Amino acid sequence: MQSLSLYELNGIVREMIEDNLTDYYWVRAELSEVRISQKCHCFVELVDKEDLTDTIVAKARGIIMRNVYPLLRLNFEETTGQPFAAGIKVLLQVSISFSELYGYSLVIQDIDPNYTLGSIAQQRKEIWNRLQREGVAEMNQMLELPVLMQRIAIVSSPTAAGYEDFCSQLDKNAHGFFFQYKLFPAMMQGEEVESTIIHALEMIATESEDWDVVVVIRGGGAVSDLSGFDKYNLANNCAQFPLPVFTGIGHERDICILDMVANRHFKTPTAVASFLIESMHEQMVRLCNLEESLYNSIDSIVENKKTALLHVIQRLDMVLHSYVPNRIVKLEHTFERVKSVVKHKLDVQNIRIESCAKRFYSTLERGMDHEYKRLQYLESVLRAYDPQQILNRGFSITFKDGKVVRNASQLHSGDILETHLKEGKVKSMVK
């Protein structure tokens, strides 16, 4: 049985391809990997996916030679505004190559940027439609702007020229308005744009009461760096943010998804600053007009009140000349009536007092006579029971230890007794 080496078999395949597939082909694919070799060749990996399942159904390697790659890349990025990087769909003109050592590959001769533009537009449309279906696309645009927008939370790169221009314009505004602002740093280009801006928004949300609006500014830069602002998660976060979000990403030709969901979008950071300054100026003019209107109203009110007060004074003057004398006469009449009534009351009370006094003295006199007679009776009773009267009649009273002896059983041999007589006292001892 005849056999072939792998090299010989691959040689046959190469000859078959070179003999039969000699044309250029336009191929639709997605870039899954892009890398530059040390020799400046660009190597890519191309995939084809099913629309519904996103499953990879085909894969191939491609190469853009170093003498072609810079021109193709420059034209692509200037036209599409997207970097030539993994994750985008492309339409490539290729020739088929086969190497015994490296196998099958596609040599990329040209790239149609218009196809990618259509793909980007389609992707952007799909994101927008999804946000609308979820009911969040216009949520931030429905937020009412604060009357004064002085406290600004800035999402930008600290090294971005647009950030410096924005701050400088706020600080040096012609009206001398004061703005308080703080930078919440984020990447404004590269693969980390989406994640770092979302992180900055989360930080602002924790202190949302300290800020009036949020501005996302980028300033100048390559148009190809704008792809990070066309991401669903970033747009979803911005659309549902509790504060109004302004964007000034610095591109003239088109708007990105982030612009579409923001409360306001501007072409440049300085345009955002100008809007904030102009809003403050409008409020200042409004306050000045209100102040002038208030002063005019006060003058009018004071004049009207002054006229009304003069009328009141005139009426009071008339009343004083007619009302007061009448009241004085009435008061005099009332005083005389009160005086007469009081005098009558006093006379009646004096009569009642005199009558009460007479009754009191009569009752008191009778009571005193009664008590005097009662005292005389008690005095005669006391005199009758006076011990001296008993002694005067010939009786005596015997005491033991200061107490009257009433019974002989109270006495014991040796007790000292004291006997009171009509005249004098006698002491004795019991035997």
Strand content: 15-25%
- Alpha-carbon Rg, integer: 61 Å
Poorly predicted residue ranges: none
Q: What is the ordering of alpha helices and beta strands?
A: HEEEHEEHEHEHEHEHEHHEEEE
Strand order of the largest sheet: 1-2-3-5-4
Report how far the terminal alpha carbons are from each other: 181 Å
Let me know the average pLDDT: 85
The main sheet comes to: 5 strands, mixed, barrel
The amount of helix comes to 40-55%
Structural class assignment: alpha/beta
Number of strands: 14
**Total helical segments:** 9
Any idea what the shape is?
elongated
Strand and helix layout:
Elements: H1 6-20, E1 25-36, E2 42-49, E3 56-64, H2 69-80, E4 89-99, E5 103-111, H3 113-133, E6 151-156, H4 161-171, E7 180-185, H5 193-206, E8 213-217, H6 232-239, E9 245-248, H7 257-261, E10 264-266, H8 269-384, H9 387-392, E11 397-400, E12 403-404, E13 416-420, E14 425-429
Parallel strand pairs: 3-5, 6-7, 6-8, 8-9, 9-10
Antiparallel strand pairs: 1-2, 1-4, 2-3, 4-5, 11-12, 11-13, 13-14
Helix pairs in contact: 2-3, 4-8, 5-6
Any overview of this molecule?
There is one protein chain. The strands form 3 sheets. Strands 1-2-3-5-4 form a 5-stranded mixed barrel. It has a 5-stranded parallel β-sheet with strand order 7-6-8-9-10. A hairpin with a 4-residue loop joins strand 13 (416-420) and strand 14 (425-429). The model has no long low-confidence stretch (mean pLDDT 85). The N and C termini lie far apart (181 Å). Helix content is 48%, strand content 21%. Helix 5 packs parallel to helix 6 (232-239). It has 9 helices and 14 strands. With 431 residues, the protein is an alpha/beta fold. The longest helix has 116 residues, at 269-384. The protein has helices at residues 6-20, 69-80, 113-133, 161-171, 193-206, 232-239, 257-261, 269-384, 387-392; strands at 25-36, 42-49, 56-64, 89-99, 103-111, 151-156, 180-185, 213-217, 245-248, 264-266, 397-400, 403-404, 416-420, 425-429.
